[in-house]
Specification:
The chain has 112 residues and is of the alpha+beta class. The protein has one domain. The protein has helices at 43-52, 83-90; strands at residues 3-14, 20-31, 36-41, 64-69, 75-80. The strands form two sheets. It has a three-stranded antiparallel beta sheet with strand order 3-4-5, sandwiched between helices. Strands 1-2 form a two-stranded antiparallel ribbon. The N and C termini lie far apart (43 Å).
């Protein structure tokens, strides 16, 4: 089974003043959930897009999640969606993920 996402692409363009600018776009990709090994929300990408511009077709309210996909060579994909949304799409037959909280995780006691 594959899950469809909007993958963020980036490049550079040179403005009229010669200063390079980040240029974002997206393309649709299909990801095999069995190959996703790590995922994490990517707030840095959102902040970068706020200064350089969101691609057409991606809302300014969007959140982004970075997927680490292991296909023998390890690829990273930044996709449109919050951690919980992406998690739920990848695990459609599992329990839904909880939304991230700003509260710190409880500390674990060392086992003796």
């Amino acid at each position: 089974m594959f899950v469809k996402f909007k993958k963020i692409t980036d490049g550079t363009k040179h403005g009229h003043n010669g200063i390079p600018q980040k240029l974002y776009g997206f393309k649709v990709v299909a990801v095999n959930p069995e190959h996703v090994t790590i995922m994490e929300e990517n707030d840095g990408l959102r902040k970068s897009m706020e200064s350089s511009g969101f691609p057409v077709g991606v809302s300014k309210r969007s959140k982004f999640t970075e997927l680490y996909v292991n296909m023998g060579n390890g690829m990273r994909y930044n996709v449109v969606g919050s951690f919980a949304t992406v998690f739920n799409k990848l695990n459609q037959n599992s329990a839904p993920a909880e939304e991230a909280s700003d509260e710190p995780e409880p500390e674990m006691e060392d086992e003796q």
